[in-house]
Amino acid sequence: MNTLSYGLLALVSRKEASGYDLMLKIQPFWQAKHSQIYPLLGGMEEKGLLSAKWVQQTDKPDKKLYSITPEGTKMLHEWLSEPTSAPVMRDEFNLKCFCIHMADPAEVHRLFVERRKYHIDRMKYYKDIQESIPPEHRNPGHIAFEDYILLQKAYMRTKASVDWIDWVEELVGQWQPQA
Amino acid sequence: MNTLSYGLLALVSRKEASGYDLMLKIQPFWQAKHSQIYPLLGGMEEKGLLSAKWVQQTDKPDKKLYSITPEGTKMLHEWLSEPTSAPVMRDEFNLKCFCIHMADPAEVHRLFVERRKYHIDRMKYYKDIQESIPPEHRNPGHIAFEDYILLQKAYMRTKASVDWIDWVEELVGQWQPQA
DNA sequence: ACATTCATGTAATAGGTTACATGATTTC
DNA sequence: GAAATCATGTAACCTATTACATGAATGT
Fold first, then answer.
1. Is A98 in the B-facing interface, judged by CB distances under 8 Å?
2. pTM value?
3. Letter string b/e over residues B105-137, b meaning 16 or more CB atoms within 10 A of that residue's CB
4. Which residues of A fall within a CB distance of 8 Å from B146?
């Protein structure tokens, strides 16, 4: 059982869902392709952590709905009490920053402007999903509270990246007149 | 050539370094083990992007120092002009948050307190490295400026995580008396 | 007509971690 | 005497991405 499997199990524990549902739902918090998710769900079904049933749909293709089993719930509780791995962050932009000294200042500026726009777009993406949660569900005790606070975290961390870019551009702006 | 290879090439372009040096230097920005770094450096040497020489040391084991070649520098410039991949963030803590509804409140609180401490420690780690950079090198034009601003970014994003935890704990605190 | 969304799966490849392997020097 | 740091490398395994494969319905 890897970390992503536990994440999927946790999502199913909140509400029965298809692999496709889960793929979309987990995106903002863990980027995984369907080709990784489907086999993991199949494995958890085999292990008896999930049970599945096919649901026929008229307007859309049929789907396989997963539900958590008592054994699955037990696994989730065990996972929660185990030590939590350190977060992993991999950003090509950061590595490109190691080249500022050798790059054309205009290209560096383009890089920062481009990344700033990316972050601003992400902030809107997070806020839009967050605002779709009814205010009465934004309280501890509701399952939607989990989504509400996680989207807030993604928003706040992304905003920190924008604030950092503005801080860098200000530093560079203050310095250039002296050059 | 993958992203990590370019990051290593960028670091070598600033100053000749050993695999071990690079492993330590890149840690705060890209978590990679020595077992991944050594083969990548060997591959870039074969491709003629890096040149290497063995340096004998009396007090420590001998080391292999890498320098960038003109072809390596050319590759770096090409990389900078190519589109930058979106950052990837994977945090088990976020997935555990999907279980708040089913977990013991005391355990959830422990999870948050533990993670808060982790972030506070990381903030100190980033600040300590950043403060080791002489103030006169913290300006655009110096190579150390790149480290200075990247450490600031890591610090600001980590601080955002702490602020978020405090925001959540406040939300939960306001709600509990009504329960 | 063409792109997107919904829906599921497998195969091949690339990226990353853990374990294996060695060995000197320094610090507690 | 034990642990940590410095230093390099390979092998096995796990994780993740890209490509292959199919097909209906909806929107432009």
1. yes
2. 0.94
3. eeebeebbeebbebbeebbebbeebbeeeeeee
4. 97-98, 100-101
